[in-house]
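Practice problem: predict the structure.
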Amino acid sequence: MEQEFYQGLAQRVRAIAPKADPFTRRRLLDLAKRYDAKGNPASRSGASERPLPGPRTTPPPSIFSGPGEA
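Answer:
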């Protein structure tokens, strides 16, 4: 169902694009490409996903101990 939704949006955006000025037309066509990518399950291969960051580590307590400025 989500796939059909995004494909429909892409079609509508492409229908509007020829009536727009060149700058807006380019933006609309880029938007249609993004909708196509969201609506196409084959394009969700994971290449577009960012890897998870590594676990956070806490500095050793020796850095915080001892005299210093506050």
